[in-house]
Amino acid sequence: MIGQSGIAVKNVKRADAASVAELSQYGVATIHEAMGRVGLLAPYMRPIYPGAKACGTAVTIFAHPGDNWMLHVAAEMLQSGDIAVLGTSSDNADGMFGDLLATSFRARGGIGLVIDAGCRDTADLRGMQFPVWAKAVYGKGTVKATVGSVNTPIICAGALVHPGDVIVADDDSVVVVPKARAAAVAEAARLRETKEAATRERLGAGELGLDIYGMRDTLAKAGLKYFEDEAATREGVATQGGLRK
Fold first, then answer.
1. Any bridge partners for residue 58, and if so which?
2. Per-residue pLDDT at 98
3. Which residues of 128-148 are buried (b: 16+ CB within 10 A; e: fewer)?
4. CA proximity to 46, closest of 122, 125, 132
5. Share of the chain above pLDDT 70, in %
6. Strands 154-156 and 7-8
7. Mean pLDDT score of the chain, rounded to an integer?
8. Phi, psi for 130 (deg, rounded to 5)
9. Other Cβ atoms closer than 10 A to 58
10. Burial of residue 126, with CB atoms counted within 10 A of its CB: 0-12 exposed, 13-18 middle, 19 or more buried
11. What is the separation of C-alpha 137 from the centre of its chain, rounded to a whole number of angstroms?
12. 113 Cβ neighbours under 8 A, 6+ residues apart
């Protein structure tokens, strides 16, 4: 069904609200690590203003280059706490989304947009505090001529997104959490955050990551040698490498 046009699904199963609320407490990096270092969208997806953060359930959009028709269709499908996620049939950077659509999305309960294409009216969107993660900021307008789909599986910036999956986005990037894994990933993220808090306290007290993470033995096995000073270093390197003449 990926890449198929002509479908608009009104009702989809979304990740459970409790898991979404739990995931909203953590950053993208924490969730990515907790999930096994998977789920990130491509690094070119950037927020249009610093400090943007959103966590919600995906309403997916499949669109064609330079055509934002399906964004208007998606507005009808939005529910409170949804994030619209748009992928295109081929590479495109046209400004498909601006302040008027953001106004419509917000009125329907939408809390953000992730778009593998362009966004415009960014000053207005910043003023509205409507967060968007986009491939590009570009003033070029679009048409409404070609049917795509809403609430079908899509590929957005290299990641597979199903309707109802959890989208978490911040200054670092965007990560997608499959709805079937939302509860487990939320728990893993909580445990990771607790562990990192303890590690942060130890680092702040001056303890080294080398010791906290038990790196010294593995570094030695990998060939790292310590020397007391530059003279000892020259002596040791010369002896090991046969540099003396």
1. 83
2. 98
3. eebbbbbbbbbeeebeeeebb
4. 132
5. 97
6. unpaired
7. 95
8. -100, 110
9. 26
10. middle
11. 18
12. 83, 84, 85, 86, 97, 102, 105, 119, 130, 131, 132, 133, 134
- Under the banding of pLDDT at 50, 70 and 90, the label for residue 243 is very low
The answer, as to whether pTM is greater than 0.90, is: yes
* DSSP three-state, residue 133: strand
For the record, the structure tokens of 226 come out as 């310590």
> 111: which residues sit within 8 A by CB, 6+ positions away?
54, 56, 81, 82, 83, 131
Say yes or no to pLDDT of 233 above 90: no
Query: Is residue 106 left, alpha or beta, with left meaning phi > 0 and alpha meaning psi from -120 to 50?
Result: alpha
Give the C-alpha separation, 75 to 77, whole Å. 5
Half-sphere exposure of 70 (CA within 13 A, CB side): 29
State the first-to-last Cα distance of the chain, in angstroms, to the nearest integer.
Answer: 71
Q: Name the residue type at position 229.
A: D
Total length of the chain: 245
The backbone torsions φ and ψ at residue 85, rounded to the nearest 5 degrees and listed phi first, read: -130, 120
Instruction: Decide: 214 and 227 in contact? Cβ < 8 Å.
Output: no
